[in-house]
Design brief:
Shape: globular
CATH superfamily of the largest domain: Mur-like, catalytic domain
Number of helices: 16
CATH topology of the largest domain: UDP-N-acetylmuramoyl-L-alanine:D-glutamate ligase
Distance between the termini: 39 Å
Number of domains: 3
CATH class of the largest domain: Alpha Beta
Strand order of the largest sheet: 8-9-7-10-11-12
Amino acid sequence: MIKRSLAQVSKMVSALNDITAFQDTEITGVSIDSRKIEKGNLFIPFKGEKADGHKYVEDSIRKGASAALWQSDVPNPPLHLPIIIVEDCLIALQELARKYREELPVKVVGITGSNGKTTTKDMTFALLSLKYKVLKTEGNYNNHIGLPLTVLKLSEETEVAVLEMGMSARGEIEFLTKLARPDAVVITNIGESHMLDLGSREGIAEAKLEILQGLKDGGLAILHGDEPLLMDRIKELKGNIRIETFGRSERNHLYPVEIIQAENGNSFKTNRSREEFYLPVLGTHNILNALAAMLIANEFSIPFDEMGTGLKNIKLTNMRMELVEGTHGEKIINDAYNASPTSMIAAIELVSNLSGFEKRILVLGDMLELGPQEEEYHHQIGEMLDPEKISMLFTYGQLGGHIAKGAQGSLGKERVFSFADKTELIDQLKQNVDDKTLVLVKASRGMKLEEIVASLQK
């Protein structure tokens, strides 16, 4: 993590006050949460609508913080303490991260996409860790606050940083990539998430391609080669960048030539290696995420034939195709972290094709941020369900109700149950599971369907 004197920090954040009396004080790491202060931290308070972190500056220093920032429009700064006054604390955090990144020799991989970016990040981390000291974005620290905090966690010894870049509007990826200055980037795919803000898949593609604006000269861009919205637009972009592609079709640089789906993962071979790779992650769509990670690892001089160890030992962030067991012996696929039509269809296809179960139950909730066509997207998910493979459908939420309506024609009304109350859903679901049942739980993060998974496990 960052270790700098206050004299150095004051220059990096363009301090407005004289900190000569404290210039030799050293900070170690930063924190924006006064409850999580560690010894030596620089505390950065944010001034929000409901709370003002400046109230906790003195308490943070008492708890062990070496210093704190202070926003200039907040009155009565405690100047007897090691305080750096700045114009805006958020901008100061971002500038501190930007300057710190410029001082480090670390290589940076930037990852974005509508679906699969966190999984691809985890896979890339696992592969690069075979050879390098690597730090990756933790949790959902992928925005204008989280990414700077991740950069400031880098140590002088970190060799590669794998940074996830999220967005909800135009310009956000551009800001993140210009701060991180990646040596290589990945765009996993273009889906329907953020349709509400960006209006179309074309708009989403343009927003994701912003990641190239921070890519270093001669850097590598790894793209989903089967996505025309990416490949058509990349031809229009000028600049000294290299392109490699992954996908299902043979026109890509890396593609699968054999896939064997199992209950706990997948085995696959590629066109670039004779090795059979095992991926302990459910869903054949995750093989494409693995291919993107493999191209990154190869860029960093890890041979394809040596990647098997990294892939089989991968640990994904929770609630992403996570297989757990319920109290009645039922198997539960917890994919409750997020959802879009693309990822929802992939998860349903996975469940439909897994053998060894007498009953397959879907528990689906609202997919958010899909814009004016949101009801139609949900209805289409219900219509596509195969009555020969899906036994029952439980939906939760207002938009989930449209999945149920669509499914009544495919599954029949007697196999479809729609709920506005999560407790009622759980009670009825428990009456329909046993040790021969597979349950998929999936919705957008805001629906908190992990609560259903937890109830089944109790």
